[in-house]
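Can't paste images in this forum, so I'm doing it all in text. The chain is below; anyone willing to post the predicted C-alpha cells underneath?
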Amino acid sequence: MTNLQSLSFYYPELILIGVILVAIIYDLSIDKSKSGNVGWFLVAGLLAVAGAIYLQENTLTTLFTNAIVLDPFASFFKLIIILATIFVSIVSLQSGELNDYRKGEYFTLLGIIVFGLFLMVSTVDLIMVYLSIEIVSIMSFILAGYLKQNTRSNEAGLKYVVYGAFSSGIMLFGLSYVYGLTGSTNYFEIQHAISNLDSGANTALLMAMIMLLVGFGYKISAVPFHFWTPDVYEGAPTTITAFLSVAPKAGAFAMIIRFFNQVFADGGAMGGLNETSIATLPWATILSLLAIITMTLGNVVAVQQNNIKRMLAYSSIAHAGYMLLAMPVMSGDSIYAIMIYLVMYLFMNLGAFFVVITVKNTTGGETFDDYKGLGWKMPIVGVVMTLFMVSLTGLPPTAGFIGKFYIFASLIKGGSQFYWLVFIGGINSVVSLYYYMRVIKVMFLDGERSERFTQPPTIMTIMLLVTAIPTFLLGIYWTPVSDWVQNSLVFFIQTM
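Text version of the structure:
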C-alpha cells in the first residue's frame, strides 16, 4: 500500500496530530492563567481519536510500505493508552505541583507521547521501533524534569536522559546486528531470513536480540534496565509518574509481544516460543529469568522504602515482572492474560497515584509519616487507597486478583515446565502483601484519630471513584473486559 493510500486508514493518528497542532497554536494565543484549558481540549481530542479507533478496530492491513499494521491487537492498546492519558490529564488540572507552571505545553507533550505510543503498538519494523521509543522517551525526559524550580525534578529528568541514551545506544547497536544478519528491518522479512540461517549465526543473533531487549526492558522497567525508575518516579511530577507507570508500559508490552510473536514464533497460532520458534535460542529461559529477577527485586526493595512514590516505583517494577511471567509461554492464553492484567493494572495503579496526588495537595508530603491517621482524616481517600493496595497485592475480590489469576492460569496451561514460575510468583505476591498492608496500617492504626473530616475537591473525588469502582467491580464481574480482550487478540499476519 502506497503512503497516500495509507493516509486514508490513518485518520485516528491524523486527528491526534491535528489536536496537537491546534493545542500548540491555542496555547500561544492565551494567557498563562488560562493555559489549563489546553488540558480539556486534549481530553476532548482524545475522545474523538478513541471514536475513530473504534470505527476501524476490525481493520487488518499494513500501512506505509509495511512499516506499521492496523489490527484489533493494536486498537486495544491504543484505547488503553487513551484512557490512561484522559485520566491523567483530568487529574493534572487539579494537581498543585503544576500551579506555578504553564500547563499548555505540558498537555501538548502528553499528546505527542500518545502519538509515539500509537507507533509503538503498531510497528512491524525495527526502524520504526527505534523512532517510536525515541519520540516517547524525549517527551518523557522533558515532562520528568517539568518542575524546573524543583531540584528533584531536575535530577529525575537528567537521570532519565542518561539512562535513556545508554539503553537506546545499545538497542541501536543490536538493530544494526539484526540488519546485518537478515538484510531487513521488517518483522516478516526478518522471520523469513532467520528461518534460513544456519546454526552458526545463533551466537550473533542471540547477542543482537539481547541488545534489543535492553531497549524493550528500559521501557517496562525490567531488571537490570530499571535503574532510572525509582529516582524518576520520585522526582517527576506525580501526575507524570502515574502516566509513566501505565501508558508507556502498555505500549512497550504490545511492542514486545508483537516482536516475539512475529519474529520468533509462528505469528498466527501463538503456539509458544519453545514449540514454534524458528531459531534454536533459549528465549523461554531468558524471559523466565528476566521475569523472576524483575518481580523479586521490585518486591524486596519496595519493602525498604519510606517514600510512597518510591515504593510505588518498585511496585511498578514488580508488576512488570508479573506480566513478563506469561511471556515465555507465548500462547494465546498468555497474551490474553497480559492484556487482562494491563486493564486491571490501569485502574488500580492510577488510582493509587491519584491518592498520592490528593494527599500531596493536602499535606505537601509523600512519606509514610504523611499518611498517619489518613483513614480518619480523609475517610474516602483512606477507603479507596485500601482497595487499591489490596488489589495491587492480588487479593480477591478485586481486579488485581483476576489479573494474577489469568497470569498464573496461563502458566499452568503452558505445561509442567512453567510450574516453578507459578510458585515463585506466589511467593512474591506474599512478599508484596507486607508493604501494601503497611500503607493500610499507617492510615488507620498509626497517628491520632481526627474528629474533623477533610473532603477532597470534587473532581479528585470523582476520579478516585472512577478508578476505585472498576477496581472492585472487575474483581466480581469481568466478562465485558474478557470479551473485549478476546475480540482484540487478532494479529495481522503476513507470510513470506
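Residues 12 and 43 are 14 Å apart (CA to CA). The chain has two domains: 1-277, 282-490.
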